[in-house]
Design a protein that fits this description.
Number of domains: 2
Helix content: 40-55%
Number of strands: 18
Bound molecules: NADP nicotinamide-adenine-dinucleotide phosphate, magnesium ion
CATH topology of the largest domain: Aldehyde Dehydrogenase, Chain A, domain 1
Strand content: 15-25%
Number of helices: 16
CATH class of the largest domain: Alpha Beta
CATH architecture of the largest domain: 3-Layer(aba) Sandwich
Length: 484
Amino acid sequence: MTLQSVVDELRERPGTGEVIPVIDPATEEQIAEFTDCGEDAVDDAVARARATFESGVWHGLPARERAKIMWRIADLMDQHVDELAELDSLNTGMPLVQAQNIMPTCAEFFRYYAGWCTKLDGAAYDVRMTGGITGAHASMHAYTIKEPFGVVGHIIPWNGPMMTACAKLAPALAAGCSNVLKPAEETPLSALLLVKLIAQAGVPDGVVNLLTGNGHTAGAALAAHPDVDKIAFTGSTEVGKQIVRAAAGNLKKVLLELGGKSPVLIYDDADLETAIKVAAGGIFVHSGQGCVCGSRIFVQRSVYDQVVDGVAQAANAAKLGGPKEKGSRIGPLISQKQLTRVMGFIDEGKRDGVEVVTGGHRLDRRGYFVHPTVLTNVDPAMRLYQQEIFGPVVTILPFDDDDEAVAMANDTTYGLAATVWTNNLSRAHRLAKRLESGTITLNCQLVFDHAVPFGGYKQSGWGLEYGREGIETYMQTKSVWTQL
Ligand code: NAP
Ligand code: MG
């Protein structure tokens, strides 16, 4: 599918609401537009998904057949890797090379979960009941069945459109669910091609349905829909709470992968050169628009100045540019709205007396580029320290000992990821226990594998994705009893 055919198809999708422009964040020019699909489209999509679930056209297939089709999706994605990468990089502004590196990982979700299709077994229990209400003694046989949840609504953000779509659709399809996908209004492009490839691979019509619309219309209607059994949401903590409220009507189950304010602890015994390089990459990559970006760095006092200088140098050396600009390593922020939000935090910090070691301004060019920014002299009560900025902005504060480092790291409502840089093995594992995060990385950052569970502690989420837990998210367990 060429860019032009995606743009044409997007424009022609039926809608009833406002016209939504799709903007290239590196040039601020409009690349496409579409009409908000409106609530009727949500009803239609849910009805189509429900019909396929009731008929069993997907979950009723032998598991090995589902697995083959899922494997085919991955193969088709590999064949279309250049188009997918181009769509996501154009739409998000991320460097094309980066998008090209990510796409095989996205495809791999379907291969990894294809393997799970044939392994979704329950357990058997040999039960000897003694007592109970009747006081009877009985031998019982009990077993569990794993069943797909039913109709799942997937609502995803703009920062990694294909990654989040695949991380949700692959396990949900492997589990046998029928699906409705709503990409972010800013980044609908690659999803159009993805659903085509899914259909081409042999997933029956109606099992995966696409909604192109706004969050407050299509997203809200999907989250509140009485015939949706589960919502799998990735996005901000604020919208996550709205999803929970909307889900209360039919008490649909909710998976939430939310925001973060992830701490990075750097000790004086660490390999400082590597720690500085990776910690800088860990916040500035994708202009800080990653949920696990390490936006709060804490440094043992003896090496504090060295780390601040090193991260600032890395910030200054980072080459910003559009997806296809030569040598560009970091793209723009996604939108004018995000630019205003990020600059709002920085400007407020400046007024309140933070020290801007480097950055603190947008680039003097077209596109929503913000210079990677290092802030010190930050008061923990400040908004920019407490709230997720989702931009290339890092605060660096000193600490003296483990207790102080842990207290500062955990002083947040979020709990997505935390990193420790130290060559003291015992300390590394001690801190892994004390840090309140769903993911802990020791002497590394931004690591990922399809098999390793991922989810947030505290207000960073509910439930887990990836690995065995990632498919169980889309299944429920039924217990069956029989008296022998
Ligand atoms: P967002 O504003 O929360 O939006 C996420 C999705 O929800 C979008 O599709 C959005 O639609 C939709 N939405 C908005 N309001 C809604 C409502 N009332 N009901 C239902 N859906 C609604 O997040 P974002 O700005 O797109 O993405 C950035 C956030 O995602 C950050 O907080 C980041 O930390 C988080 N994130 C978390 C993870 C993780 O795995 N933990 C991964 C990536 C990103 P619109 O497009 O119309 O806004
Ligand atoms: Mg949005």
